[in-house]
Amino acid sequence: MSDDIWKRTEVESPCIKVCVIHPEARLCTGCLRSIDEITVWSKLSPDARRAVIEELPGRQAILQKRRGGRAARLAR
Question: What is the 3-state secondary structure (H, E, C) of the chain?
């Protein structure tokens, strides 16, 4: 019996099963993909997936930016 079925060449998903969309940044706080990227992920080419994955580390700063705390919430 061959294990060929378990050997896949496609790029894996960056999903870590922490699926919470940041309300302002519109990014998943788990994998950092946008809703649009998540929606079309299975239809993207391997090269397009790699391009998105390469961008993800740079998006972390977007979610870590301080938003002003209590004073900013009260100002809204």
Answer: CCCHHHCCCCCCCCCCCCCCECCCCCEECCCCCEHHHHHHHHHCCHHHHHHHHHHHHHHHHHHHCCCCHHHHHHHC
Cα(12)–Cα(46) distance, rounded to whole angstroms? 9
17's torsion region: left (phi>0), alpha (psi -120 to 50) or beta?
left
pLDDT of residue 33: 97
Dist CA 11 CA 54 (whole Å)? 12
Asked whether the predicted pLDDT for residue 28 surpasses 90, the reply is: yes
